Amino acid sequence: MIRLNGVGQVFDGREGSVTALEEIDLHVRGGEFVTLIGRSGCGKSTLLRLIAGLLVPTSGSVQVAGEPVTGPRRDVSFMFQRPALLPWRSVLSNVMLPVEIDKGRGGRGKAEYRDRAHQLLELVGLQGFERRLPHELSGGMQQRVSLCRSLMRDPQVMLMDEPFSALDALTRTELSEELQRIKMELSTTIVFVTHSIEEAVVLADRVVVLTPRPGRMREVVDIDIPRPRSLGQDAHLTEVAAISGRLHALLSEKADVRPVDEVPR
Ligand SMILES: Nc1ncnc2c1ncn2[C@@H]1O[C@H](COP(=O)(O)OP(=O)(O)OP(=O)(O)O)[C@@H](O)[C@H]1O
Fold first, then answer.
1. Whose CA is nearest to atom 27 of ligand 1?
2. Cβ–ligand 1 contact at 212 (below 6 Å)
3. By CB distance 3.0 to 4.6 Å, which of 9, 12, 84, 244 could disulfide with 20?
4. Ligand 1 centre and the CA of 46: distance in Å?
5. How many CB atoms lie within 10 A of CB 86?
6. For residues 6 and 61, is the Cβ–Cβ distance under 8 A?
7. DSSP secondary structure, 50-118, as one string
8. Which pLDDT tens digit goes with each residue over 159-198?
């Protein structure tokens, strides 16, 4: 679904040039959930922006669904750290926004889109809140609305840049469970950036570890814990902790890092 071949990104600034990414080779399969982790500045957001078509790589190529990425695509959605809802619009009309921007190009009639918006709001537990304004909702609820808005175009690919980082721990756990459920139901391909190693492990089919200056792929780790996973369950907690420990060591650049399948669980 997503293919990056030999991707490099150099930014030219006033202080000289910065190599944000170098030699990135990554293939994300359709329906796969990949998380990106790495220290601040290792190029995670840059990688998402390249896949989204918001940036053109300095070298290498980026493909989505077998086509070179030349700009933003309708079937690729981007979700940010903050929900960025329009404050004067109701929950329902915020969720409907992408359809209005498309002016119905997606093929459904307005009533059908409205039904879809209600369905999505129900999926994230917001039925009954359709007429509320964003400021009447908690941060977690606002981010759920933003999630519904991202899903309105039935994206093939969802790019998520630390979408839960501004939330409290419990809401964050709940939303990561919901996102797994949505992913299993809709089989959307997801690339998700996070600073939380545990969150990366709980969500991912594979975790990509990036190292900084220049941003390179240090390792790709398969996570084979059965879904749905939750940090609220002891069994998952132990497995997640074992893999997280190793990822932590990888990120700290410790020399003696055992492969995940040798880590006692
Ligand atoms: N538009 C830009 N112009 C110049 N330099 C940039 C630009 N965008 C990113 N960079 C640089 O590229 C590098 C990677 O930035 P990026 O935001 O992708 O890192 P990140 O891993 O997402 O960081 P964080 O975890 O702090 O969000 C950094 O050194 C950053 O300063």
1. 40
2. no
3. 9
4. 6
5. 11
6. yes
7. HHHTSS--SEEEEEETTEE--S--TTEEEE-SS----TTS-HHHHHTHHHHHHTTTTS--HHHHHHHHH
8. 999 998 888 888 888 888 888 888 888 889 999 999 999 9
Among protein residues, the one whose CA lies closest to atom 17 of ligand 1: 45
Give me the interface pTM, i.e. the ipTM: 0.97
- Give the Cα separation of 200 and 194 in Å (integer): 6
Superfamily of domain 29-41+48-56+70-75+156-265: P-loop containing nucleotide triphosphate hydrolases (3.40.50.300)
User: Cα angle at 200 between 181 and 126, to 5 degrees?
Assistant: 35
Tokens linked to 160: 């998520």
Number of other residues whose CB lies within 10 A of the CB of residue 117: 23
pTM of the shown model: 0.89
> Is 20 near ligand 1, meaning CB less than 6 Å away?
yes
| CB 200 within 8 Å of CB 37 | yes
If we measure between CA atoms, which residue out of 53, 110, 41 comes closest to residue 78? 53
What percent of the chain shows pLDDT beyond 70?
Answer: 91
The pick from 39, 42, 251 for probing ligand 1's pocket by mutation, whose C-beta has the most ligand atoms within 8 angstroms, reads 42
For CATH 3.40.50.300, the residue range(s) in the chain are 29-41+48-56+70-75+156-265
Nearest atom (ligand 1) to Cα of 195 = 25
